[in-house]
Every structure is written in structure tokens, then in C-alpha cells.
Amino acid sequence: MSVAVEPVKEARLPLEVPHAPKPVPPPAPVGTPVIDARSYRFWYGDTQALFDLTLAVPRRSVTAFIGPSGCGKSTFLRSINRLNELIPRTRHEGDILLEGVSVFSRGVDAVTLRRQVGMVFQQPNPFPKSIFDNVAYGPRLNGLAPEREMPERVERALRRAALWDEVKDRLQSPGTGLSGGQQQRLCIARALANEPEVLLMDEPCSALDPAATLRVEELMVELKEAYSIVIVTHNMQQASRVSDYTGFFYLGRLIEFGDTKQLFTRPRDERTEAYITGRFG
Ligand code: ADP
Ligand code: MG
């Protein structure tokens, strides 16, 4: 006697949208935030700069930090990749987790951490080296790939940073010879060549003209498919254009954090509202 087996229904997957080949992002653990700050506090000497920061940065998204100057946005970014520990007489309490692991734990070394957490600054700062060597710098330092694989790796990073077509014929020219906007994309490529999880961008467009700014903004939106991006910006239009989540910093505290659209249209805190409507800062 044969047992009737119900035929297995074929899983219906949504039709794939055709698209240009993109680097396949590694699988992301669902649900866990990429960066998780827990009651984080920070001091320069005797002066406390950050108070009790608790927030979870969602993965594969753009998170913007806004707020007046001097409110601790850069200090927080530099805490995530431990750049602050290069500044004498600083200390912290509380914790910051990257992928669930404290960045301060003994097993985490700063060079590895900074490979995983790339950073781009306000002023594009290419090394006084060729375009090629700028991008190859991190992978060489971190021993990520043998030299024969470097051309491919450099090309991939330059393509991801939307710079390849503009520089492919002059890879041996100095990085410092590029325009400001190109230099900033070169710095982004340099960070991406390390295959980071997170890209921190501290006012990356403040020194760029409007066209170059637009280019970098478009790039951020593309990159969030594969990376988690945190950007500090003074430009509220920029925050609302590119970010999914926004945090408002004021006097070393995170006043409000949430969905960008909600924060800009229905802020919960009156200080957030005052800032986004231009009443201070
Ligand atoms: P933001 O990026 O929001 O403008 P910062 O993180 O740069 O703010 O600064 C936060 C506070 O920490 C400010 O009061 C600033 O003066 C102070 N600060 C920043 N860097 C240093 C430093 N290297 N040494 C001492 N104080 C600092
Ligand atoms: Mg700053």
C-alpha cells in the first residue's frame, strides 16, 4: 500500500529584478544591530563630552547624526573605532558593541577594528601616493590579499566608490592631484578596500561643491546595500535625503533617535524641533 504524500508546493520567490552585477554582501545576522552603544560616557581629561549614550545602529542602512557643533558627534564616531584612545588623558565608561562584541574587549585589536570600521573625514586626506597605492594601502597593511590580487581588489573598491571610470587610465598618478570630490571618493575607496562592516563619515561633504556632494550622497545610498553607514552632517537636507535613521545630539547627549522621516516631521523632543526648524545651532 502506498502512502499518499502531499506534493511539496514549490516555494514562490519574488521574481528577481535584473540588475548590474554587484558585490554579494555577506549574510547579515538578522535582528542584531551592527553598532550597539550601552550607556556610553566619555571624558577628555576632567571634562565629560558624552553622557549616557544608548543606541542601536541598524545594519545595512544610513544613520545620520545631527546637532550643533561641539555636541559630541565626532567624539562618538571616534569612539566606535577607538581613534580617541590616541588622544592623551581620555577615558570612557559603558560599552560599544560591534556585531555583538565590545570594541574595548581585550581580544579586539585597534588595527583590526579600524579595518572593520572604516572612516572618512571632512577634509579628503589621500596619502601622498598614487591612486593605486592609496587604495591598496589597507589591504597591504592588513595582509588581506597577495600582491598579485591587488589590481583586482583596487579596481573593485574604485568601482564601488564610483570612481573607477574617472581614474582607470591614471592609476599611477598622485591621489592628491584629483579634484576634491574625487579625492573624497578615493578616500571612500581606500576604506572599502578593507572590506569593512561599517563606514563612518564625519561631515564628508562639508568641503565639497554641490555637484560633488550629490555624487557622494548617491554613493551612500548605493553602498548601504552592502555596508552600514554612519554619517555626521550639518546639512539637514542631506540627512533627510540620504539617511534612514537620524540621531540628534545636544550637549553630549543623544536627545532623540529614530526613523528619519518621523524625526524630521514629528520630532518627539522640543529641542530636536528647535534644531531642525533652525531656532538654534
Ligand atoms: P561635534 O563633532 O558634535 O562638533 P566634538 O565631538 O568635536 O563635537 O566635540 C565635543 C566636545 O568635546 C566639545 O566640547 C569639544 O570642545 C571637546 N573636544 C573635542 N575634541 C577634543 C580634544 N581632542 N580634546 C579636548 N576636548 C575635545
Ligand atoms: Mg565634529
Please provide a written account of the structure.
This protein is of the alpha/beta class. The protein has a domain at 35-122 and 196-276: Rossmann fold (3-Layer(aba) Sandwich). The chain is 31% helix and 23% strand. It is built from ten helices and ten strands. It has helices spanning 73-80, 110-116, 131-141, 150-160, 164-167, 180-192, 210-223, 236-242, 260-265, 270-276, and strands spanning 35-44, 47-57, 62-66, 90-98, 101-102, 117-120, 198-202, 228-232, 245-250, 253-259. The strands form two sheets. Strands 6-7-8-3-9-10 form a six-stranded mixed β-sheet, sandwiched between helices. The termini are far apart. The model is unreliable at 5-22 (pLDDT under 50). The chain binds adenosine-5'-diphosphate and magnesium ion. Magnesium ion binds at residues 73-74, 202, 232.
Tell me the name of the CATH homologous superfamily of the domain at 35-122 and 196-276: P-loop containing nucleotide triphosphate hydrolases
Coarse shape: globular
Uncertain ranges = 5-22
* Hetero compounds: adenosine-5'-diphosphate, magnesium ion
What percentage of the residues does DSSP assign to strands (E)?
A: 15-25%
Radius of gyration: 21 Å
Q: Give the spatial strand order of the biggest sheet.
A: 6-7-8-3-9-10
The secondary-structure element order is: EEEHEEHEHHHHEHEHEEHH
What is the CATH architecture descriptor of the domain at 35-122 and 196-276? Answer: 3-Layer(aba) Sandwich
Count of helical regions = 10
Distance between the termini: 81 Å
Under CATH, the topology of the domain at 35-122 and 196-276 can be stated as Rossmann fold
Overall mean confidence score, pLDDT: 90
Residue share in helices? Answer: 25-40%
What structural class do the secondary elements suggest? Answer: alpha/beta
Largest sheet: 6 strands, mixed
Number of strands: 10
| CATH uppermost class of the domain at 35-122 and 196-276 | Alpha Beta
